[in-house]
């Protein structure tokens, strides 16, 4: 006998489609979708993520997480009075990126959101695998840095107030604990629900799924009938994060809701963690944030292409996001 089949939705009394242990709720598809939307709404309110009239740029990957973020935020634009657009960065990782791009286009159309796509091959003539081969580094070690740089640049050039990221509760709990274990305490500050930017060259970030579990994002897109990425990136490997995830999953199993309580207590104590020791400066070549005279992205381009792209790159990105 399947207990889920027999259970009834706590809201409408029809057969339930899922049980949320952390909330002790049986829910049918419709009421599950409403429940997750309400969780995102509460999160946006609780952490004062969006100011009225704000322009928000959602970073979308084609995965279940960022699609859930985009779809839920798109339903809240009227309530919080903000404008929402989306950006996808095509990393050029074979079929994985082809599938991601196709899904992003579909999801943005379903959500009725204007979007722009930055293709690394078009922009730099280099995909992540090519870039990694040229500088002899593992793809994942440059991928995150390239995405962060371009997302911020796109946000600056589009003139948005905030960039919205699809990071969910399970991943955030892992990153926070990992940084704690490694005593990278300054980095914990960057993992809160909202990070303020610096006027003109560093766009602030919000994480509307700060209190939403990964499992719920998978259910959300599936119950909403939204396609999401089925292929895994070929460069994904098991690392320290997966061991930490298993530990946190065990805690959640023993005490449902543990991760939410953990994330909330971190959010309350963020100001106690040390500020970065370096001053955020402007890169002398591209004007984007840097810890030294030249940012790591410009240094990487000099190594690979023999010249920094600097302001030329900014012009190209400005043109791509001009349709937003
Ligand atoms: Fe980038 Fe793939 Fe590594 Fe993720 S797993 S950081 S998408 S290269
Ligand atoms: Zn119901
Ligand atoms: Zn630079």
Overview of this protein structure:
By secondary structure, this protein is an alpha/beta fold. It has a single domain (18-229, 239-321), classed as HUPs (Rossmann fold, 3-Layer(aba) Sandwich), CATH 3.40.50.620. Helices cover 51% and strands 11% of the residues. It contains 15 helices and 10 strands. It has helices spanning 3-6, 29-46, 64-74, 77-80, 94-111, 120-124, 128-135, 139-158, 169-181, 185-188, 214-223, 240-254, 258-269, 296-305, 310-321; strands at 18-20, 25-27, 55-59, 83-90, 115-119, 162-164, 194-195, 204-206, 281-282, 289-290. The strands form 3 sheets. It has a 6-stranded mixed β-sheet, with helices on both faces. A two-stranded antiparallel sheet has the order 1-2. A two-stranded antiparallel sheet has the order 9-10. Helix 5 links the parallel strand 4 and strand 5 (115-119). Helix 3 (64-74) packs parallel to helix 5 and helix 8 (139-158) packs across helix 15. The longest helix has 20 residues, at 139-158. The mean pLDDT is 94. It binds iron/sulfur cluster and zinc ion (2 copies). One zinc ion is lined by residues 283, 285-286, 288, 294-295, 297-298.
Descriptive labels:
six-stranded mixed β-sheet; globular; binds iron/sulfur cluster; binds zinc ion; two-stranded antiparallel ribbon; Rossmann fold; 11% strand; 15 helices; 324 residues; alpha/beta
């Amino acid at each position: 006998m399947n207990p889920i089949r027999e259970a009834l939705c706590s809201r409408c009394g029809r057969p339930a489609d899922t049980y949320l242990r952390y909330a002790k709720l049986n829910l049918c598809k419709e009421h599950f979708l409403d429940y997750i939307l309400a969780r995102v709404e509460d999160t946006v309110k609780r952490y004062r993520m969006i100011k009225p009239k704000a322009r928000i740029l959602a970073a979308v990957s084609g995965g279940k997480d960022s699609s859930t973020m985009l779809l839920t935020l798109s339903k809240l634009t009227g309530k919080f009075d903000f404008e929402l657009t989306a950006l996808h960065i095509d990393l050029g990782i074979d079929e994985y990126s082809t599938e991601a791009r196709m899904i992003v286009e579909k999801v943005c159309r379903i959500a009725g959101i204007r979007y722009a796509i930055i293709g690394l091959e078009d922009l730099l003539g280099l995909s992540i695998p090519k870039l990694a081969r040229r500088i002899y580094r593992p793809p994942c070690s440059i991928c995150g840095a390239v995405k962060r740089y371009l997302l911020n640049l796109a946000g600056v050039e589009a003139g948005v107030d905030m960039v919205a990221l699809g990071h969910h509760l399970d991943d955030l709990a892992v990153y926070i604990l990992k940084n704690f274990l490694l005593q990278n305490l300054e980095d914990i500050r960057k993992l809160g629900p909202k990070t303020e930017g610096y006027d003109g060259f560093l766009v602030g970030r919000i994480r509307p799924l700060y209190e939403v579990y990964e499992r719920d994002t998978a259910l959300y897109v599936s119950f909403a009938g939204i396609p999401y990425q089925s292929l895994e990136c070929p460069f994904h490997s098991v690392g320290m994060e997966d061991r930490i995830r298993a530990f946190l999953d065990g805690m959640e199993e023993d005490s449902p809701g543990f991760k939410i309580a953990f994330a909330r207590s971190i959010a309350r104590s963020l100001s106690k963690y040390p500020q970065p020791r370096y001053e955020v400066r402007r890169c002398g070549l591209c004007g984007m944030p840097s810890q030294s005279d030249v940012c790591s992205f410009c240094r990487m381009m000099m190594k690979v292409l023999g010249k920094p792209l600097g302001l030329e790159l900014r012009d190209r990105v400005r043109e791509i996001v001009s349709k937003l």
